[in-house]
Design brief:
Two copies of one chain form a homodimer.
Chain A: H1 13-36, E1 42-48, H2 51-64, E2 70-74, H3 80-83, H4 89-94, E3 101-105, H5 110-117, H6 123-142, E4 146-153, H7 156-168, H8 178-189, H9 191-205, E5 212-216, H10 220-240, H11 274-292, E6 301-308, H12 314-323, E7 330-334, H13 340-343, H14 349-352, E8 361-365, H15 374-377, H16 383-403, E9 405-413, H17 416-429, H18 438-445, H19 447-461, E10 468-472, H20 476-494
Parallel strand pairs in A: 1-3, 1-4, 2-3, 4-5, 6-8, 6-9, 7-8, 9-10
Helix pairs in contact in A: 1-10, 2-10, 5-6, 6-16, 7-8, 11-20, 12-20
Amino acid sequence: MFESLQLKHKVDKAAYEAEEPLLRERLIDNQLELLEKPTFPVIVLLTGMDALGRGAAAKQLLSWLDPRHVRPYAMMRPSEEELERPRMWRFWRALPPKGQVGLFLNAWYEGPTREYFLGNIKRGQFRDHIEENLRFEELLAHEGALFLKFLFLLPKEQSLKGVEESRKGRTGAWKLSRDEVEIAEQFAKNYKKTISAVEELVTATSRTHAPWIPLPSADARYRDLTIGRTLADAIEERLKASKRPLSMGGTSAMVGDTGANVLDSLDLNKSLTRETYRARLKQARNRLTRTTLSKKFEKRALVALFEGNDAAGKGGSIRRVVEALDPRMVQVVPIAAPSDEEKAQPYLWRFWRHMPRLGHITIFDRSWYGRVLVERVEKFCSEADWMRAYEEIRAFESEMSDYGIIVVKFWLAIDKKEQLRRFKEREAVGYKRYKITNEDWRNRKKWAAYTQAVHDMVERTSTSRVPWTLVEANDKYHARVKVLETINERLKESL
Amino acid sequence: MFESLQLKHKVDKAAYEAEEPLLRERLIDNQLELLEKPTFPVIVLLTGMDALGRGAAAKQLLSWLDPRHVRPYAMMRPSEEELERPRMWRFWRALPPKGQVGLFLNAWYEGPTREYFLGNIKRGQFRDHIEENLRFEELLAHEGALFLKFLFLLPKEQSLKGVEESRKGRTGAWKLSRDEVEIAEQFAKNYKKTISAVEELVTATSRTHAPWIPLPSADARYRDLTIGRTLADAIEERLKASKRPLSMGGTSAMVGDTGANVLDSLDLNKSLTRETYRARLKQARNRLTRTTLSKKFEKRALVALFEGNDAAGKGGSIRRVVEALDPRMVQVVPIAAPSDEEKAQPYLWRFWRHMPRLGHITIFDRSWYGRVLVERVEKFCSEADWMRAYEEIRAFESEMSDYGIIVVKFWLAIDKKEQLRRFKEREAVGYKRYKITNEDWRNRKKWAAYTQAVHDMVERTSTSRVPWTLVEANDKYHARVKVLETINERLKESL
């Protein structure tokens, strides 16, 4: 691989000066067209050897583009807030909205590669991180992102020379940290090993929706023009294309009524007497309080999500959980219609942004499962979209779990008769907070479709590390106690 | 003051149990009504002695309210990202949007009070922080926020007892940090001094729009019911009120055509030859590169904002600045219509959210001055709103400046003839990025009104620490060089 490295890639000054102004005009025009009807973000990755060259190229690109619609990103050292969240959080946080260009230096490949190269992490962990990267890119591509992953490559001599120059401080506007100089030196000195590592990485991480673009970067003019041209071509091509390039995903044969439903096995009428309820609730609450205030919990975090039929009692259960918690560590996030900033991002973005820090707790009232429940049933997204969501969600929850976040998921189930009783009761009481809307009645008519969606969801996303807990909720006492006791159990297992 | 501390404030169990469910119903109803038509946020501060009591009260309040629409906030230790920004950033960041309740423990009064009490800061700095608090509250109140500032008060014996209990770990669900226990102990032991400090604070910081509510907190039932009732009453009162309670602000007599205009004194035709331009631009660019990469800059930050007539060349100037900067440290923020999340917050919020970290640079293409320019001229806000903005903006810029952020402000001025020439030129060229819209032509008709607004703005917001730089921009060469050289000068003075 990378035989082209041996070829001479050079652009002379005259040719450069002839092309540059036209290219800039094209790029600006593309950017504006993209902004006018923002349908996708552009993600440019500058990765590979040649830290100096990457920096210089980023500078050049930023000066060609209109910098007001570019989000440059470079992980120097992750901040404390970033370190207290799963690795990918900082990249989710830095994503450009639709219509804008994200310019990533030192992004998701650099960290694992460096740590692996320096022997700080083992091969297994390295592969796990690469897998996270791939899933991240795939999800974004599915949501429409246009990827340009440039892989900077230098022949051996140049790579040594670059290191020397940075040591001497001849870096132009580009400042390399001591770490960066050191790693560049390591790379250059172990050139053969580096190239083979890069080959391995490229083999593992090139995908049609996010391919690597090898870039011999020794000649600055060649390097910058190539990046500019490739970017302009790609944006133009995509703007012309009428639809998203990536539409894989399964067929509806993957899911569907198999006769049996996981909800069927539940005895929805499980109940507790008032006395038992009071005693067990108090006990569970105290236990939850103690556990979340314990030393051990400081290095972990909890995400609890609540889904369920309308009027199943999610709010009441959430309240019983919150009551047990130090208000300084808990945040309750109700999921309703997304804000316009959220709409300009992939659907998981609005959940990533509420990721708790270590020692903290986020409770979601409805969640990312909306994708495979309401969005599926109401056809708010395409079949391919909700189909792939099962996988994306499993990966998302794994990332949290790998990082040490305890994820607890509840489906509160009532039967159709009980729902009707509660709807009527609420209409009679007339408290504002119990208001039954037309939408509630409409949803009720789709009971069977929702039941099927719940079955498929549980089937596909209940894993041994992040299982679903189905809560029989015709009796509120039983439901609330089960919720609290389940959280306690999961915390006990995990701490 | 605080004579009521000597009175017995007690609620017996029966009375409490009779009132509590009704109060809860009221609070929930209020919350929902607030959410239905979100016109203002509610900001509840629990401050004062009695750390344990504050925690317990917050817990109780959170369990009465619907926690999904409450943003609890408690500064434990500020995070690194918070420490790298002005002190108020963390509170701006935690503000509830309109329609929601912010529940603040350990908020903006605790830090300065503690530091002052412990002798870590001098009286002068303490007063500065208090001043920041006041301006913050005033701005929020002007924007509609409903404030409830509860001041917890304990008689001497109880305050000592509380400390003892926390030491023993008998804190219920409430965990006090070692710092908190220590400070509570200091407070209790120096009870007289504490009370007189609290009196002083209250005297300095009680305002009609954000009054202190002294709360004898020894009896938990009395304490919680009082908070709940006061909150419910205040929300109901405000919901009934047809308009914002605070509408101070000056009269239009404050500003207006005085015959002379600061813009008149400019020679808009200042120009440079192409050769001089190239040489000075290169020099200024190199200098800017060096300065921003210097060790000294790492502990500072730069905010540069650009305002100017339409077609005055803001974009081109910004590009020349960005070209000199390490792309990893710069962010360009174009200010257009606010997103819906931004609309749910006070107008300065969207600028606070882009506050650079130390060692970083934010460039605003248009800025908070929109308030006294376009919003004034187009009557997007009331006269009182833009009148008070002069003061609010001065305070905002002082806060940045006090923290060490270098703020540079440019007005790019062209004359009416030059604007017409550029508009026509742009229409002829037809590049997308030069598109002249109907709005541009409309704005042009209001030339005189804008000129007056610019004059008033410069008059009122050019301070010795954060001066305006008026840039003669009929000649682009001159304008760009002046911009870069001014930034260099300001950096030199400040570093």
